[in-house]
Design a protein that fits this description.
The chain is mainly beta. Helices cover 4% and strands 55% of the residues. It is built from two helices and 15 strands. The strands form two sheets. Strands 1-3-4-6-7-10-11-12-13-14-15 form an eleven-stranded antiparallel barrel. Strands 8-9 form a two-stranded antiparallel ribbon. Strand 12 and strand 13 form a beta hairpin. The radius of gyration is 21 Å and the shape is elongated. The two termini are 37 Å apart.
Length: 342
């Protein structure tokens, strides 16, 4: 609320303004997001909605870190002693971070192509009540290939939609030290890839309200087949809503709420024992969560166009979580990015 109050109290001359009227799509190849800094979706927004002009190329480097603390079953935190009364080992906390290098290219003034290359690091701390240790896995994750199309644009709003694929480039049967064992198949949450193709669909709607901009987004993921180990990543659906306001010509503050739903893993991985640790149980992966994020962005070269050289950061935490657990309880998310256009 303090961030929202600060936005309201900002003087009007601090708000990013423009004399260029927003026009219908047929009048210009440059979309609504190029008119004002706060009309560009904030860091982490779903169905980003940024459409390139023909031949335009934008690079984006993103970092995302998610921390987890303890276990949750349903909406309740579960202590280690409770877990160890049923399973041989438990998990205490986890940290997962990811670097994404994304390229977006304007095929024409309506369709933008995108490709994202992820590098991931995952680590989980486990305990058997007497001993504890940390298991890690890092490397290339699953590459995302997609497209986004400008469906409709008016003077004050825009609707985009896109389809894509997640390619099975990340390792899905990695082995290593885990829960007191020297070399075993790591649980689902420590695998960097799914080992099978997945389809994605996304949509984004942005409304320019003058000094404020509102946005809605959605992203769905569906595994298309099982991998050679007999399992497939969980299905997911995420929706979000955000509000942003520009100030000092080239700065933007934003608030965003995101709701996420994940199914359990389909099929069982060979080598995992669901009685050893909750993370090895394919039926304890899914759940629902709502996160709140606050963000800040700045265009470093505003004279060269909105988003052409942009830094952005966002931090968030869960306000609601219901897991098919026991499962790792989300704690904190930090993300930042740098966008550079040509």
């Amino acid at each position: 609320m303090s961030l929202l109050l600060l936005l309201v109290l900002l003087p009007q001359d601090a708000v990013a303004q423009t004399d260029t009227p927003l026009t219908v799509i047929d009048a210009t190849p440059f979309g609504l997001e190029r008119r004002k800094p706060h009309s560009l979706a904030p860091a982490g927004a779903l169905g980003e909605g940024m459409i390139m002009s023909r031949g335009e190329l934008t690079w984006k480097l993103d970092f995302n870190e998610q921390t987890y603390m303890g276990l949750r079953d349903g909406t309740q935190q579960v202590g280690a002693s409770t877990i160890l009364s049923t399973w041989a080992t438990t998990v205490e906390d986890a940290r997962m971070n990811r670097w994404d290098l994304e390229a977006r290219y304007g095929l024409n003034d309506r369709i933008t192509l995108a490709a994202s290359l992820p590098l991931e690091h995952r680590e989980v701390t486990w305990s058997d009540g007497t001993n504890s240790g940390t298991s890690t896995n890092e490397g290339l994750g699953d590459v995302h290939l997609g497209s986004e199309m400008r469906v409709l644009e008016t003077e004050s709003s825009r609707l985009t939609a896109g389809l894509g694929f997640i390619a099975p480039t990340g390792e899905h049967n990695h082995s290593g030290p885990w829960a007191g064992q020297a070399d075993v198949v790591l649980p689902y949450g420590l695998q960097l890839g799914g080992g099978a193709w997945q389809g994605t669909a996304q949509a984004s709607w942005i409304l320019d309200g003058g000094i404020w901009t509102l946005g809605l987004g959605a992203l769905g993921t569906l595994p298309l087949n099982k991998n050679d180990q007999g399992w497939a990543r969980e299905r997911s659906l995420m929706v979000d809503a955000w509000i942003a306001r520009g100030f000092w010509t080239n700065w933007v503050m934003s608030l965003r709420a995101q709701a996420s739903g994940f199914s359990d893993v389909r099929g069982e991985a060979e080598g995992l024992d669901p009685f050893q640790n909750p993370m090895e149980d394919n039926g304890r992966v899914g759940g629902d969560r709502i996160d709140l994020f606050a963000g800040l962005a700045v265009d470093l070269t505003p004279g060269h166009g909105v988003g052409s050289n942009r830094l952005e950061i966002a931090a968030g935490f869960p306000v609601y979580e219901d897991l098919d657990g026991p499962g790792l309880a989300a704690d904190f998310t930090l993300r930042f990015g740098w966008r550079l256009g040509f």
